[in-house]
Amino acid sequence: MKILGISGSPRPKEQSAVYRLVETVLENTGMEYELISLRNKSISGCIACLGCVKDNVCKVEDDFTPIREKIVKADAYVVGAPNYYSTINAASHAFFERWFQFRHQAGNHLWGKLAVTVGAGGTSGRIPADCLETFLLYNFIETVAKVHGQGAASCYSCGYGESCQVGIPNMLHGPGVKITEDMIPDVKKQPDVMAAAVNAGRLLASRLQSDHDRLAVTDTMQAKMMSMFESAV
Ligand SMILES: Cc1cc2nc3c(=O)[nH]c(=O)nc-3n(C[C@H](O)[C@H](O)[C@H](O)COP(=O)(O)O)c2cc1C
After folding, report:
1. Pairwise CA distance, residues 15 & 202, whole Å
2. Who contacts 210 (Cβ-Cβ below 8 Å, separation ≥6)?
């Protein structure tokens, strides 16, 4: 069994809260995994050409193309994105729009698979974790756990963080804030968040290894999606 990890942060992995959390979840599955970062990748959103409807293969050629087969072959996913303007960042959105190619006819490549979603934000990562769960639901993938934490907003290192009226340091600590190393959010310093990442990895592995029934998960997720549609009307 193999798990595919996706980090949607454009920042280097050493700086990225999303990358760190996705990696921690993957490490704690104890299973074989591959972690792909969307940093420096050129991936467009879905262009609604409908070229994928017959064979479930997207006809747009870009950096998504070599990842497609890894998505199909993976038994589960650990996917993470940063909070940009109270939704997921554009790179992650574009990437997950392209999963539209798997949604047609009997293109049963992803149905009933399992996932963990991860989010990080300058205030909270809950929104991206929830948003990714919804993306996955469209392919009848069950999110077994969500992990979210507070990452460092760029305002802490931009050079104007102490005086900027609309920066995160001012908003969180008030006017006249003096930025010190210990106040810069870092998921590694949030024990509850790191514990949630460890537990999510273990839960995903245990679900995969205990008679994971893809058909049953597919039915449950399909019902969940229908009820989401009904309540949205
Ligand atoms: C363009 C932009 C918009 C952002 N908007 C939000 C936001 O609306 N809410 C929030 O909590 N954080 C916001 N952030 C902060 C990021 O979510 C935060 O820095 C997070 O740690 C990024 O994840 P990463 O460390 O994995 O790159 C924004 C950052 C950028 C660059």
Report:
1. 25
2. none
**What residues does each domain of the chain span?**
2-151+186-216, 153-185
3-state class (DSSP) for residue 183? helix
Spatial separation of the C-alpha atoms in residues 200 and 18, rounded to whole Å: 14
3-state SS class at 226: helix
Q: Which residue has the tokens 């050079």?
A: 159
List, for residues 178-221, the tens digit of each pLDDT value.
999 999 999 999 999 999 999 999 999 999 999 899 999 999 99
Q: In 3D, which of 107, 41, 29 has the Cα closest to residue 75?
A: 29
* Assessment of whether the complete model's pTM goes beyond 0.90: yes
Best of 11, 39, 83, 150 for a ligand 1 pocket test (most atoms within 8 Å of beta carbon): 83
What pLDDT digit, counting tens, does each position of 82-136 carry? 999 999 999 999 999 999 999 998 878 999 999 999 999 998 899 999 999 999 9
Ligand 1 in reach of 193 Cβ (< 6 A): no
CATH code of the region 2-151+186-216: 3.40.50.360
Residue pair 78/204 in contact (Cβ under 8 Å)? The answer is: yes
pLDDT beyond 90 at 20: yes
Three-state DSSP at 33 gives strand
Which atom of ligand 1 approaches the CA of 82 most closely?
23
In sequence order, the β-bridge partners of residue 3 are 33, 76
Q: What is the pLDDT of residues 56-73, one digit of tens each?
A: 999 999 999 999 999 999
Q: Which atom of ligand 1 has the smallest separation from the CA of 121?
A: 17
